[in-house]
């Protein structure tokens, strides 16, 4: 009977698991929890192909519990109840360890129904998810579980796993493997062991007279398995990394994250975030930046990919190397905080609309002073409501542009 290579090579002990040293190393918390023999309810969070299912199987084996593997895309509460019915039989003498894959596909009601089963202690739940559990898992489940984050496998660890897989798949066939194949696969799969093992198996099965070649490896992994989902964590993580790289004035990192978005075909998200960055992070230090970025974005959408990459790269590099100021963002956030807190008050009568009959009878605009009628187009008068007349929101940034404006107004207002 055919057995996939991924199953043949699946680790049997924690020491055999590739990567996850932060959890399973000698001092890893998860390793110590497993060694204690008392397994709490847990949530394994991380991308696919990084060992979540494997570790659950090892836990079941080490604690001598029967493992029930369910997938939330097809299972329901009836399946959980069927497991509970077995608990007092010889089929599960030490209790059940239920591994619920993709728990994010259980709706809120289904997740709530799990509580009655896990609170009795007869069933231990290990749920896995590729999505952030703090967004997708019901709070009551979270409060009764410990979240462990599994990370993509590092390239160095992946290469060792690929080399081991080749050795097992080839066996005594004496099939040559060209130099660089293992390294290429380890890099191309972006931390997904399952994809790496699938590539190894494919290459061995389809090997020609020259054995496994680098050319074949490149064809088998034509496109990097870049972790990206427009509705998932990676989408927001890459956008966050793009903005923080620009904010941190690192043009190389900014280009890298832009490239990841464009390679995934998500030009819209990149463009929208760049328009935000121009005002939020460059802001008044270089006010013209917003117009330039808008022009680059417009050009990109007129051109389409792949040519669109050029004006978008231009905009990213401009912002990454430009002076920075968040004074506008900070000022409007402070003003909105007061409004939300109810700190508003009545608009002063002298600056209310007075362009209608009867306005003067209501006292509108009677004492308003027209700034353009005064030297330097400025005259001292109150604009904020009485209740918050001393409120202060905007602080000039330390950049050249804002400091020049500050110096100008200090001269003008100081002279009055």
Trace the largest sheet across and list its strands.
2-3-4-1-5
Span from first to last CA?
A: 93 Å
Average pLDDT across residues? 86
Structural class: alpha/beta
Unreliable spans are none
The biggest sheet amounts to: 5 strands, parallel
The number of helical segments is 19
Residue share in β-strands = 5-15%
Shape category: elongated
Helix percentage range: 40-55%
Quantity of strands, as a count: 5
Radius of gyration: 31 Å
Question: What this model shows, in words?
Answer:
- There is one protein chain.
- The chain has 416 residues and is α/β, with parallel strands linked by helices.
- Helix content is 49%, strand content 6%.
- It has helices at residues 5-8, 21-24, 29-36, 52-62, 77-86, 108-118, 133-136, 139-143, 155-170, 181-188, 193-205, 214-220, 233-247, 251-263, 267-282, 289-303, 309-321, 327-340, 400-414; strands at residues 42-45, 66-71, 96-101, 123-129, 146-149.
- The protein has a five-stranded parallel β-sheet, with helices on both faces.
- The protein is elongated.
